[in-house]
Amino acid sequence: MSEDLYRTVTDFARDTPPWVHVFAEIGTDAGLLLFGVLFVAAWWRVRPADGRAVAFAALAPVATAFGYVVSETLKSLVDEERPCRAVVGAVASIAECPPYGDWSFPSNHSAIAGASAMALALAWRRIAWLTMPLAVVMASSRVFVGVHYPHDVAAGLVVGALAVVLFVRLLTGPTQRLVETMRMSRSGAARWLAGPGPDVDLAAAVPRQRGRRAASRRAAGRRRVS
Q: What pLDDT does 189 receive?
């Protein structure tokens, strides 16, 4: 079934204009660069926020790298041949077929795309409408140019996303504590990386604290008199 779908997609791809071929070939790598920019934007955006939000943003690129490692590990275990060599009767792939030993399942590009989209959605929920469809388009382009089966890219998306969820779930707590420690550090670089944190109105907080203490002393005095 996956071979039939691969033939259908690649036959259609061959009939598209040459500029579409070029766009599809460079689109995946360009999308990965866009994800990199969004990682930086997400971190910068949450620097004034609490430690947990900064932890999500800081973990996003690291979790994506973890998703790639998981995908690459699976690829070395499965050893599935590329469809551009294995599928009989398929048209020539638009992209150059990777060399023997660069296995097909799962798609690393798709895993990175799925991991990036999930990591950014966790760190910056409002851009999930952009990152999720972008990851699907990037993954689909790998079938379009003929270097992956449809099940390769589907598995890559799922593997990358699940790896990120697991990674972030395990490391959010320790990373949050690290961020809070960095914010109290004497190192200016550490404080800058961790961000200033939420604004605290000390001028308003001190009078309120003094007022509560005075009220407590008056209440204690009344109890002693009674």
A: 87
| DSSP letter string, 90-115 | PPPPSSPPPPTTS--SS-HHHHHHHH
Instruction: Using alpha carbons, select from 134, 82, 127, 128 the residue that is nearest to residue 110.
Output: 134
The answer to whether the peptide bond before residue 61 is cis (omega within 30 degrees of 0) is no
Backbone angles phi, psi at 182, to 5 degrees: -60, -35
User: Can you say whether residue 99 is alpha, beta or left, with left for phi > 0 and alpha for psi between -120 and 50 degrees?
Assistant: beta
Token pair for 65: 């790298």
CA–CA separation, 190 vs 193, rounded Å?
A: 5
pTM comes to 0.81
Single-letter residue type at 36? G
What confidence tier does 203 reach under pLDDT thresholds 50, 70, 90?
very low
For the chain, count helices (H), then strands (E): 9, 0
